[in-house]
Amino acid sequence: MSADDPHEGLSTHMALRSRADTTLVRVEDEAVVYQQDDGPLHGINPTGLLVWERLDGDRTLAAVIDELARRFDFPRQSVTDDVMTFATQLLDHGLLEVVARVERAADESAGG
Q1: What is the pLDDT of residues 43-98, one digit of tens each?
Q2: Under 8 Å CB-to-CB from 41, ≥6 apart: which residues?
Q3: CA angle, corner 28, sides to 25 and 30, nearest 5?
Q4: Could you give the domains of the chain?
Q5: Structure-derived torsion over alpha carbons of residues 17, 6, 105, 21, reported in degrees to the nearest 10
Q6: Are the beta carbons of 14 and 92 closer than 8 angstroms?
Q7: Are 84 and 61 within 8 A, CB to CB?
Q8: Residue 84, SS3?
Q9: CA 48 to CA 25: how far, in whole Å?
């Protein structure tokens, strides 16, 4: 069953942020991100850039997903799939790190 889960180990109750050795360079409404030592360049489209900017270590993935789903009036499940796939790719490339795992994200959604 784990082979069917492309986001194994990643939870919407995690807070992520860019690693200290990662650099982001904006190119118009898109960006390129890379590790300063010797990493390859990774292009980020405008939607990915919106996600990247919210992965600040303070917000969980659930909070980011909720914000983007409301902002663009998209179904939450669709946004969840896209954000989780993007976050998984960034983690796999060593561009993000897990800052915290929150048992419940319900408190983050309050007041929204």
Answers
A1: 999 999 999 999 999 999 999 999 999 999 999 999 999 999 999 999 999 999 99
A2: 32, 33, 34
A3: 65
A4: 2-101 (3.90.930.60)
A5: -10
A6: no
A7: yes
A8: helix
A9: 13
Q: For residues 95 and 13, is the Cβ–Cβ distance under 8 A?
A: no
The number of residues in the chain equals 112
Q: SS3 sequence, 21-47? A: CEEEEEECCEEEEEECCCCCCEEECHH
For the entire predicted model, the pTM comes to 0.82
Quick count: other Cβ atoms within 10 Å of Cβ 14?
A: 19
Per the CB < 8 A criterion, the answer to whether 28 and 46 are in contact is: no
Contact indicator for 65, 55 with CB cutoff of 8 Å: no
